[in-house]
Amino acid sequence: MGEATAGVLGEVLAERQRQDARWGQQDHDPSTWLMVLAEEVGEANQAVFETLFPSYDKRAAERGPRSLAEYHLELLQVAAVAVAAIESLDRQHPQG
To answer: What is the distance between the alpha carbons of residues 87 and 6, in angstroms, rounded to a whole number?
Structure first.
């Protein structure tokens, strides 16, 4: 594992900690986790779309144009939600 990967995984861990502080431990069923994950992927998609095509960004006048830094944050949320889903699955269905 390279230094860049370790840095990204550290950011994912920090996002997981932020999510747990905000929402507490979550133990959803798999279909609910997939809906939460899909919502996060949608936000990442919107962030990069509005960065690449700012004329479609309806809220740019309110908050300024999107940046790839926002896309980065959304991807961290996607990764952290996927990790949370795995943690939940393992709690509910321990292997062995």
So the answer is: 20
State the Cα–Cα distance between residues 75 and 70, nearest whole angstrom. 9
Domain boundaries of the chain, sorted by first residue? 3-92
Instruction: Round to whole Å and give the CA distance between 96 and 78.
Output: 28
Question: Mind listing the pLDDT tens digit for each residue in 55-91?
Answer: 888 888 888 888 899 999 999 999 999 999 999 999 9
Count of residues for the chain?
A: 96
What are residue 28's phi and psi, to 5 degrees? -85, 165
Give 5-25 pLDDT, tens digit per residue. Answer: 999 999 999 999 999 999 999
CA separation for the pair 38, 55 (Å, rounded): 25
Closest CA to 79 of 5, 16, 25: 16
Dist. CA 5–CA 78, nearest whole Å: 16
What global pTM score does this model have? 0.90
